Amino acid sequence: MNTQMILALAVTFFTLTGCANMSAQDKCTAGGAVIGGVAGSVLSSGSGVGTVGGAAVGGVVGHQVGKDGKCL
């Protein structure tokens, strides 16, 4: 395997195992930030400000939705 493949597998492994101890609300916050970041990037044609803004708004929304311990 080449170096890029090994690096991608390592990042994936550590990302997935890093979420194991997160609370349900933390997972909702992270999921909201990811979805918001992607949406912000799409809506702003890849602008960094749009991506970060979308991630911030998505994280706040995910945090509020996850208060009862359930994500959509």
Automatic annotation (TrEMBL):
A single Gene Ontology CC term: outer membrane
Signal peptide annotation: 1-24
Keywords associated with the record: Signal
Residue span, Glycine zipper 2TM domain: 29-66
InterPro entries: Gly_zipper_2TM_dom (IPR008816)
Transmembrane segments: none
Organism: Sulfurimicrobium lacus
The protein's name in its UniProt record: Glycine zipper 2TM domain-containing protein
Taxonomic superkingdom: Bacteria
